[in-house]
TrEMBL record:
It is found in: Cell membrane. Its main location: membrane. The chain crosses the membrane at residues 21-46, 58-79, 91-118, 178-198, 224-249, 261-283, 295-326. It is a multi-pass membrane protein. The keyword Transmembrane helix applies. GO terms for molecular function: transmembrane transporter activity. Gene3D superfamilies: MFS general substrate transporter like domains. Residues 20-351 form the Major facilitator superfamily (MFS) profile domain. Keywords: Cell membrane, Membrane, Transmembrane, Transmembrane helix, Transport. This is Transporter, major facilitator family protein. Coiled coil: none annotated.
Length: 351
């Protein structure tokens, strides 16, 4: 499949924006699949790095999981400013090469503290997907923009769906280090694809054209609505991702340490994404008819109702059903918050 895409992109008659699309689609897929291939099994991997009590194991798993996002939040403004001066392609190569090295080093970690440190460093090289969207938005013809953004999304989401399942199988057969090596290898392919096939007609952004935070909010009439959506998005992500660092430990407990725990954890981790893809188009259309606020409120209530019983599940099957339902709730929550923010925000403040 990869060879076929590369051959097609090498044809001279193919428009450059289409070559960019296929190269960045693969990069998005590699990023989503590689990251999700290893993440659900972090606690099981950490458990092999030392003899930790349960509280310590869950603490280290949470630190290893969240350290990427912490460093990403710290450096993202810096990379954004640099992208305005140098273009998106250098940022794509920076992210893909950085993740190639850091993901491989994660698999070589001798202890949990080195793993957490490397994961923190890995977060400083993140941003491939965001820059892929930004580059395509600037290069694609206006009439093709919606289709192209949708295509890029399928790459990331598809990778997030298939990654935990493949990672679970590989971990169960070859151990927990191999998914990290696979992540590094996939990002190496993404680096090569980006370097060879992505071309950018870059025009530096003038400083006067950029808005500060105060300027961006000045044109918003209903600031309380946008503020509520920002808080809602934060709470949704916190609630949804809070279980991710310990999902494999929970599955291990439910399976009484018998069977292929890694593969089962991968399937459980992938179920919300499957449900989200299935439900999002229908809930989006429903929101157009009855209003996004009603869908958002229903999604928040439904999410709370589904999360609560997870505390009391006694079988993996029931956990899987509830995780699938959480995916439906996510399909109602995240797209709707973005829709409301877009409707209430002037065009020059969206970015």
């Amino acid at each position: 499949m990869i060879v076929r895409i590369w051959i097609m992109m090498g044809k001279s008659k193919t428009p450059q924006w289409k070559k960019n699309l296929w190269a960045l689609w693969f990069g998005n897929f590699a990023t989503g699949a590689g990251a999700s291939m290893a993440l659900p099994f972090l606690p099981l991997f950490i458990n092999e790095l030392g003899n930790f009590p349960k509280w310590q194991l869950t603490l280290y798993a949470g630190l290893a999981f969240s350290s990427v996002f912490l460093s990403q939040a710290i450096v993202s403004p810096m990379w954004g400013n640099l992208a305005d001066r140098t273009g998106r392609k250098p940022m794509l190569l920076r992210a893909s090469i950085g993740m190639t090295i850091s993901a491989t080093l994660c698999g070589l970690s001798p202890n949990v503290f080195v793993l957490i440190l490397i994961r923190f460093i890995q977060g400083t090289f993140s941003g491939y997907i965001n820059n892929a969207y930004a580059l395509m938005a600037s290069e694609v013809p206006q009439e093709e923009s919606g289709h192209v953004m949708g295509m890029l999304t399928t790459g990331n989401v598809g990778g997030n769906l298939i990654g935990p399942i493949i990672g679970g199988y590989l971990s169960g057969v070859f151990g927990y280090r191999l998914p990290f090596y696979m992540f590094g290898f996939m990002m190496l392919l993404a680096s090569i694809s980006t370097w060879l096939f992505v071309k950018e007609d870059f025009k530096p952004v003038k400083k006067s054209a950029k808005l500060g935070i105060r300027d961006a909010f000045s044109g918003i009439q209903k600031k309380w609505v946008v503020g509520a959506m920002i808080v809602s998005s934060m709470l949704i992500m916190a609630a949804t991702m809070s279980i991710n660092p310990i999902i494999s430990l929970f599955v291990k407990e439910l399976m009484h340490n018998h069977g292929n725990i890694a593969f089962t954890s991968g399937v459980i981790a992938a179920l919300p994404g499957i449900a989200t893809i299935m439900a999002a188009p229908y809930l989006g259309k429903l929101g157009d008819h009855i209003g996004p606020e009603k869908i958002l409120m229903a999604g928040l209530v439904f999410s709370a109702v589904v999360f609560f019983p997870m505390t009391f599940v006694t079988t993996v099957l029931l956990l899987g059903v509830l995780r699938f339902l959480i995916g439906i709730a996510n399909a109602a929550l995240m797209p709707i918050t973005q829709t409301v923010m877009t409707l209430e925000t002037p065009a020059n403040a969206v970015n």
